[in-house]
Records
---
Amino acid sequence: MSELQVIEYESLGRSNAQFVDELEAAASRVIRSGWYVLGQEVSAFEAEFAQYVGAKHCIGVANGLDALILSIEALDLPKGSDILVASNTYIATIIAIVRARHKPVLVEPELATFNMDPARLSDVMTSNTRAICVTHMFGKPCRMDAIGAFAKEHGLRLIEDCAQSHGAKLGDQMTGTFGDAGCFSFYPTKNLGAIGDAGAVVTNDDGLADRLHHIRNYGSKQKYVNRYAGINSRLDEIQAAMLRVKLRHLDGITVHKRALAEAYFTELPSWVKRPVVRPDEFDVFHIFGIQHEQRDDLRQHLLVNGIKTEVHYPIPPHKQDALKNIISGEYPIADELHKTELSLPISVGTTFGEVRRVCRAIQAFCVRTNR
Ligand SMILES: Cc1ncc(COP(=O)(O)O)c(C=O)c1O
């Protein structure tokens, strides 16, 4: 019998194989240029990415966490403001609020979509609330129509964590352009992934863009003239060049991932709880998260069958030691999602044959356990 071929959750070498020649040529171009920090590649990527998402400005930074921290800082909110944030987001969104010296106030998500529930915003709003920071979880756009209307009604600033939502749209509008700032991570596994750490902020606000251009570079836009006490969080030339290559392929990457999602929708047993599809939401499926009561057993069963999966995320933010003196209260929906979520392989390198094998293995588990 032939040995069981392992299905990786993500293999970056395999995912990037189709881009290697272009990436190597771009890296070589940068090395030979002799200009490695804040040069033509960064400017060109910023212009190309701003155009792609439909924003006036893009400011490249070192990573997605810095994109969030610097955007929140640049808003210049009163110190210690309450900022509303989803209770099930990746902890980086919450850490950014803390590091910008504000108070994260958790809003429970919709159980079916993993996204911030607009109906719960008024329950957590206080006189100290100044902003909302949404995360478009797993590549699915949040209900920015309802959240935007709430922010407007209450005079709140709006930041979007788009680390998982490159190219995702609500209606015709791309995530990142609904609020004051859209914050992107280009961590290698993201739909638009660099060959290392990288991030960016997009905005239509000239003043905010100007502050961010300063803050990412020691508070300086002019050599040795410092307007703010900024930091060093520059996107470097090599990563910008890598991202220019990958950006040209982003729509193709999205087409492949959406087709894999379609295959899961068709082939998963009908009673498996899968992502919700709504006609006006263009989901880019950074992650394909199903839910199952016996998640850990199912995960183990898949592993035994040579299928690697992930959990996003095993511990909810309010149960992390890092936040124990900052967040209190009960978050049962976050608890439930963290207990039941299982992410199936859906990377650029994943094949339709692999999706079929995953679905067959899930079917076998459910027959064995009578669901
Ligand atoms: C939702 C979310 N926010 C923020 C980040 C942080 O991005 P980075 O790792 O580039 O700092 C991530 C990255 O995993 C993320 O998934």
---
Amino acid sequence: MIEPQAVLAPLSRAALVLVVTVHDGDEAASRTRDLCGDLSGLVRSVGFRDLDAQLSCVVGFGAAAWSRIFDSPAPRRLHKLPAIRGEKHEAPSTPGDVVFHIRAGRPDLCFELATQILTRLSGAATPVDETQGFRFFDFRDLLGFVDGTENPTGDASAKAALIGAEDPDFAGGSYLVVQKYLHDLDAWNRLPVEAQNRVIGRDKLSNVEMPDEVTPSSAHRMLTTIKDADGNEIKIMRDNMPFGSPAAGEFGTYFIGYAASPTVIEQMLRNMFIGDPTGNYDRILDFSRAVTGSLFFVPSLTLLDTLGDS
Ligand code: HEM
């Protein structure tokens, strides 16, 4: 029986995303593998101190790192996230060998686990980004909109986020795209709420979708709705977290998207940045700048344990 990592864990009050690059050489690779084998135990040790807080940690690997760390074939669809350049906005592709997506009901558990992980990787890996996210009121992002409503639930969430029989060697795994966005909140807050509603395609206060007839084709929800050849919607699982520092004037959304295939998220990104049709880009980007972007493969727990032992 293949057990996935905690990809489908519910949206939490606190999250910490850690992206590291692994140093060259056998020693660094072997220390990273050892950590993979011990990660479940570490999560249990930290998480048991408050079981109600439901600490979880998902670990994923970038294309450049896989063959350096593991002596095992890479998943077919794992590659470097391509940078996407639209006429006005750009989604960068930034380095990332290993990602840890840590979630819990309390920030201290996330903090402690990240500390333990980095202690284990000291001298073997360098952190390139750490983002501590928090729940903002009723799942609002810092633009003030409820974020996550259209996430699939139940069986549909597993179908959206987990690899199935189409790639049996990697079944129960997932592809994860993370991107850090910084918002220009002064400019956003100068926009009347009716105009903000048209950018997202929902009503800000009530969170109800605007009727399709009056929703601009550039609205975020229109450009991120992807359909297959039969007209069925292809969903992803999003775990976006607000983050920031009022003193530093930093207000952001950390985009975290899981999918059974990376092509779905990449299509959404092309629609947002290049536009559909070209030029009809996502107006959320006039107020939000992507400053990082990486793609990772998240093995099933079953495969992770095997890789950790190798
Ligand atoms: C600045 C960054 C972003 C913000 C603030 C943001 C915010 C939102 C909000 C408020 C919604 C509507 C409610 C909901 O269903 O969650 C939404 C929907 C959605 N977003 Fe984003 N988002 C961001 C980036 C992205 C990116 C990068 C992707 C994919 C590559 C994405 C994919 C989606 C999808 C698939 C939906 C659901 C569309 C639907 O079925 O109606 N978002 N987002």
